[in-house]
Amino acid sequence: MPDPRDAHDILRIVLDEIEGGADMPLTDNARTDFISEYFPAFDRRFKEVGAEGWNKEEKTVKRVADIHGKIAGMLAKLGNEGVVTARILMGVAPIVEQQCGVRTKGEGAWCSGG
After folding, report:
1. What is the pTM of this model?
2. Contacts by residues 42-49 (CB-CB < 8 Å, ≥ 24 positions apart)
């Protein structure tokens, strides 16, 4: 895959990983809300480290995104929903963000934007 050009590219990668982890689609509102919430932090982080920094941290970010999706997908299944809604995705986000920063030992800067 070519290097990301900007935070929009990275957010597309992250959302694809979340959706894959959830094993069900994200609603358009879930995608929009996630982008609205995290674009400023991802943009700031990308401007700090660029594509080279992303390439070093991509594996960790994708792993966290996959886990975010798995949690959101399980909650959607608990409610007998066939999609991950914005409410579910964004409800899980603070927990994932906090744990990412704690458990990735310094590689969690993308979780909160550094």
Report:
1. 0.90
2. 42/7, 42/10, 42/11, 42/14, 42/110, 42/113, 43/6, 43/7, 44/113, 44/114, 45/7, 45/109, 45/110, 45/113, 45/114, 46/4, 46/6, 46/7, 46/10, 48/114
